[in-house]
């Protein structure tokens, strides 16, 4: 069966409320790295709710059985009523009325579940956003120097990584002043040849922890079926066949 490496990357900067500056760079740079590693990349920037919903739905429809799927989002995010939401740029009404989340923000769990229904071999779900609980603040506490998504339920054959823990704020700035802290460290390793994904994410998480002065912990949930999964595999097995991806 033919396997395709597919990636959807989204970066949102131009928010109605509390604009960001590095999320578009994050998505562009991650997309370029994945493309160089053989992925078919669908990059989108500064999407409204309708735009995000449409591009996610279109991408999901392209997923075939046994594909390797990557989803990357950089932008604002929240936790609302025990669900993680990814925020589109038209967020003014969400700030005023948090109850609009189900209708005007992207539910991360629903997105992950919809991808799993297509029966890919593996899903890597990378969310570079904060996870501040809206119930606590009564409004989306988006800060100008941060990007903001309770615990997501894993699906079989997936790896989900948040840039920070529950009810925490991710760091938008890194030492290169181009990318967020999480994405900066992701870019150091994402296309490294023959590096297993779980090992790669351990390095990313260590880097985030160190550069945040031991303040920031990434959150990982792994249910991958094998450890032999790579973003950029150049080796062959002893029988001459490719290892996983």
From TrEMBL:
<dbReference type="Pfam" id="PF00656">
    <property type="entry name" value="Peptidase_C14"/>
</dbReference>
<dbReference type="InterPro" id="IPR011600">
    <property type="entry name" value="Pept_C14_caspase"/>
</dbReference>
<dbReference type="InterPro" id="IPR029030">
    <property type="entry name" value="Caspase-like_dom_sf"/>
</dbReference>
<dbReference type="GO" id="GO:0004197">
    <property type="term" value="F:cysteine-type endopeptidase activity"/>
</dbReference>
<protein>
    <recommendedName>
        <fullName>Caspase family p20 domain-containing protein</fullName>
    </recommendedName>
</protein>
<dbReference type="InterPro" id="IPR001309">
    <property type="entry name" value="Pept_C14_p20"/>
</dbReference>
<dbReference type="GO" id="GO:0006508">
    <property type="term" value="P:proteolysis"/>
</dbReference>
<feature type="domain" description="Caspase family p20">
    <location>
        <begin position="3"/>
        <end position="79"/>
    </location>
</feature>
<dbReference type="InterPro" id="IPR052039">
    <property type="entry name" value="Caspase-related_regulators"/>
</dbReference>
């Amino acid at each position: 069966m033919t396997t395709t490496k597919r990636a959807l990357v989204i970066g949102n900067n131009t928010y109605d409320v509390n604009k960001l500056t590095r999320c578009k760079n994050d998505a562009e740079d991650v997309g370029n790295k994945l493309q160089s590693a053989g992925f078919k990349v669908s990059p989108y920037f500064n999407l409204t709710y309708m735009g995000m919903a449409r591009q996610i739905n279109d991408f999901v429809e392209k997923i075939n059985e046994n594909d390797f799927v990557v989803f990357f989002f950089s932008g604002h995010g929240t936790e609302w009523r025990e669900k993680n939401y990814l925020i589109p740029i038209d967020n003014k009404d969400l700030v005023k009325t948090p109850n609009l989340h189900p209708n005007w923000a992207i539910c991360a769990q629903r997105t992950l579940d919809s991808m799993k229904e297509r029966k890919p071999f593996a899903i890597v779900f990378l969310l570079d956003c904060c996870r501040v609980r809206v119930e606590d603040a009564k409004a989306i506490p988006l800060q100008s120097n941060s990007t903001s998504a309770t615990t997501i339920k894993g699906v079989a054959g997936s790896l989900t990584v948040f840039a920070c823990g529950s009810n925490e704020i991710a760091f938008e700035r890194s030492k290169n002043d181009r990318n967020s802290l999480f994405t900066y460290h992701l870019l150091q390793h994402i296309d490294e040849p023959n590096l297993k994904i779980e090992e790669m994410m351990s390095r990313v998480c260590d880097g985030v922890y160190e550069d945040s002065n031991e303040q920031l912990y990434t959150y990982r949930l792994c249910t991958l079926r094998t450890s032999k999964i790579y973003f950029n595999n150049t080796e062959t097995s002893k029988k001459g066949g490719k290892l996983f991806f």
